[in-house]
# Entry
Amino acid sequence: MSRCFKSDNTAAASPEILAALAAANHGPARAYGDDAWSTRLNAVFGRLFEHEVRVFPVSTGTAANALALATLVPPYGATFAHEGAHVVRDECGAPEFMSGGARLLLVPGSGGKLTPAALRTAFADNPVTVHTVQPRAVTLTQATELGTVYRPDEIAAISAFARERGLALHVDGARFANAVAFLRCTPAELTWRAGVDVLSFGATKNGAFGAEAVVFFDPARVADFELRRKRAAHLLSKMRFVSAQLLACVEDGLWLRNAARANALARRLGEAAGSLLCHQVEGNEVFIAADAGQLARLRAAGFEFYDWGPEGSGEARLVVSWDQPEDDVDALAAALAALRGSPT
Amino acid sequence: MSRCFKSDNTAAASPEILAALAAANHGPARAYGDDAWSTRLNAVFGRLFEHEVRVFPVSTGTAANALALATLVPPYGATFAHEGAHVVRDECGAPEFMSGGARLLLVPGSGGKLTPAALRTAFADNPVTVHTVQPRAVTLTQATELGTVYRPDEIAAISAFARERGLALHVDGARFANAVAFLRCTPAELTWRAGVDVLSFGATKNGAFGAEAVVFFDPARVADFELRRKRAAHLLSKMRFVSAQLLACVEDGLWLRNAARANALARRLGEAAGSLLCHQVEGNEVFIAADAGQLARLRAAGFEFYDWGPEGSGEARLVVSWDQPEDDVDALAAALAALRGSPT
Amino acid sequence: MSRCFKSDNTAAASPEILAALAAANHGPARAYGDDAWSTRLNAVFGRLFEHEVRVFPVSTGTAANALALATLVPPYGATFAHEGAHVVRDECGAPEFMSGGARLLLVPGSGGKLTPAALRTAFADNPVTVHTVQPRAVTLTQATELGTVYRPDEIAAISAFARERGLALHVDGARFANAVAFLRCTPAELTWRAGVDVLSFGATKNGAFGAEAVVFFDPARVADFELRRKRAAHLLSKMRFVSAQLLACVEDGLWLRNAARANALARRLGEAAGSLLCHQVEGNEVFIAADAGQLARLRAAGFEFYDWGPEGSGEARLVVSWDQPEDDVDALAAALAALRGSPT
Amino acid sequence: MSRCFKSDNTAAASPEILAALAAANHGPARAYGDDAWSTRLNAVFGRLFEHEVRVFPVSTGTAANALALATLVPPYGATFAHEGAHVVRDECGAPEFMSGGARLLLVPGSGGKLTPAALRTAFADNPVTVHTVQPRAVTLTQATELGTVYRPDEIAAISAFARERGLALHVDGARFANAVAFLRCTPAELTWRAGVDVLSFGATKNGAFGAEAVVFFDPARVADFELRRKRAAHLLSKMRFVSAQLLACVEDGLWLRNAARANALARRLGEAAGSLLCHQVEGNEVFIAADAGQLARLRAAGFEFYDWGPEGSGEARLVVSWDQPEDDVDALAAALAALRGSPT
# Structure
């Protein structure tokens, strides 16, 4: 799998994270999160976010999202989500499953983003009576599934809308690090200061083996999260090894270093792609539109990536991982630049 | 946490498993189980079990059990389980959750074991009509929650009963290694040869960081397991790191070495405990009955363990981990021997 | 089906109820419970129970029970119920279904009754940790499945236990009328005054076509009941016809007249059965123990009834309906008296 | 509630149906559908549909739809439905609930209709992988929520698409009678001959108190429907009274007489409305677009009806019930004709 730009899920783990695992691997430790690593999470993430938080480690992003939403939304409830969101398209109905059947209400939006206007329309189209599912949350993805990044004021506007309607605001932050690295803002500015209630903080794509954190900014929202996590079989017995990954990510800035590197390499690809680009490159994902012959040529040159969008659209997604070899990126950048000048 | 006999969940991971993780941590690998490690599991476990198998890694034993049962039992179905089984008492209703509400029908039995006679009674007490939940499976735990081990003929007798009634047979093998090590039989003899349909093969308690395998002996039973796993958020993106743990466990016999060591140390404790013993020591768990003063003395000497059984019963559980220091065991053995002669 | 003593479910509806249906069958009425009949229920049942109530009509007893429990118990919760209760044995898992998988914790008890002592034992046997289902309610059946009736002080004692542990108290009152008629107490004395939180008030077995009412004595408990009812497809569009049945039952005492008649006839059977009786006859159900030959003779004489209890126990259940012909009862009484003197 | 055009749910029941209830109300009958009425349903509907069928009575249309879909679609499955369908907009998530969380995939379409082209697009937009919900069924509404009627060839085209993709075809026939009456075709032509697998046959809106039938044209599809119905608390104990309503509807053609009358009156309104009409009037529903002043004038004249469509669209729905007084219709027709000439 050289020249693999399929997903940041194909990456290995950071050496620092492996080292943290090895360091935690000595002697007994209390099980189920009562260990010395897990019990530090609230404080460490609290400092990171400059706010009191309640942090719950899980091992997949889908678990983080679906459990967070299940805590916010009852079985007869509904969540507004972008029609291209991961929770909608890539989780095999986990949000429905974890919530006991709550519905996702799909909202269109360019660049993978929700807007207050689009949410307003969707809300109006789903009037609340005893005959209808009851909207209770909005979820957005940061960075979005199209590699764009919500600015703090965009989130604040969505949050204002949500609060008015009594909806909680959840952020799927599978690539939250890439968003923070891009904006060079604080984690606080992108979350609770902008009105976010719960964040799925992703580490797996960004250098962990398998570690995500559900971060509640309002302890009152936590409710029965712990029971739901256990019941969904996501309370790991040797939790120290997930928590140690999370600590290794955030305690000395590894999460931002990894993300910044991936972003920078993606930006290089974006510059090379130029007019082929479908969306602004803001995180570690690059979306291009090309014709079938062009994409075939890239693949013939050994680059692996996914087609994107509707069949036949000619869109393709190029994802740069935290550990992407620079050679890969240089080669792809050259190939993209060459492509630009030569449609088939 | 020195002298910790609370659970094999408090143990660290084997150095061999850590090494396997490190070895797998190079370059990109396909995500979601399409990697070079995961795709070898069927063959490797097939050799181990001398049978065609379909193997699905997950990261918790509760996930393995609840997903396996959900595949075997519809929402309106029911599973016979020992009243003290982990699925009944320690999974916060995960079997109900994963199955969409199927019921566990509790069956009593000494030594933590189901018997055909007890199952027959339970079956008769739950007649099948359109007004009742529909029995579809039996689950047993190997080694049991009381540290005893089912012999192949005991399992075969349960399986014969199950087959007659159209019930599938699942084994919660969180400590399957300890059972195999104790009996010195083959994995085949304890599973499909005795009529087992699906096994939750545990590695976490036995030296892994977090890795369990659901092993189907009949491919036709697999059905929609993969979709259920994904939907329950148990399909890890970087699955290679779970699969690598499983391979490191079974490929060169580590699983049996670890289990045999723990068993041997537990046996030493059992001999020391003598008349205090509640159950035969067959795996890595030792159950004693003592008075409150005796248990307090053990704790005062630094030994950590759980009370067991009904409140005030004076029963206690001592679990030996694969990495239990011999010193701990020697000290506890001495303390138990001393206790025997001196009730308070 | 002459001489049918199988169930009060086999009975027809009272002429008064049919008349009420006919009377309600004129012109348009608002749908979904916003009609002139349904909107009177709170007031009418409020007078009956001498308490502010919120009343929700449904068309089956199983719906009443399962929806009531789903409102009181979260998916990871549990409800203590007698091991022979209808919710346990005759609802095909509806309580699990409606609640999203909450568990029923079975409690033994003679005469079909729960006691504080048995509940205390069951509670102690289900300690509450993050690994276990969380007890949230107790449900009892009035009159019980064995035809006995809880006295107000028995209920109050159970309620005291429940309150101490933070459990809600639900009563399956499929035969609540028979209990009130037997005790000649007020509905209030058997419910909120004794600490009952929610009652499934049965009318179907007692002369309605299909009408049950879920009665909340504490409006705060209602929570999302209406949404759950709708979602479970139990909000009837032409609700007036269910509500009209309920009004016809309770507004002029029909419910007590019907129940009193059935009770009196059952008592006559009980006296005839004498030593064959398994339980005191307090409602409209008579349980006898006889040998196979005796039961065969009854059936040969045209009496229809169900065997009861474990297979081969020789127990049988004789249910007297509100409209049971007196001739049937006289004939059965004579047959029972004859039986007493002549075991086969 | 004079001049009520809000819904056919506000109508009373046909005298014939009341008479059938009264006729069935004599003496005991076996409970739970084992009675003389219920056991005739398969044969009677079999003759009506000229095909072997399995018929299951329930008391609400939502139950019929959601239970039918739950039988066809697993929890991780999905159903294509028109974005304006009753299952989507008016059942509070019952399809999700009954199925254990399966998803509705929304499809646009003018006149309330699905088309193969729109389904093809929707199918392509939901590619099937282990990460996605699995399409298993298509549901359409007949007559549609906009009062239009699918022709047999339109259904056949949808069915051809469905079969190719392995999807079952369900029809929500809450107003199936109106569709048959409009087309003057046979029930067979609109169902199994056109490839329909399961039909929710509605009677409640068309003159029953509360009676719907789930009709399976392929016995193999029935699967576990009966257990699902029981578990959802929709197996009525005194089922004879639901079945008697269904028999009274179909045995002598009442269902078509009622529907034909309502259709004819609706057509009269449609002619009066002329250019105000949004959709062809084919069943018993009339949709008009007017300005706010015009709608206010209608309401001031005592006509009751619902606004329809997005807020401020000026659309309104006028539903004619089977028992709508002709005077109401004449008055409304006159008012509509007057309106046409005088926008405010």
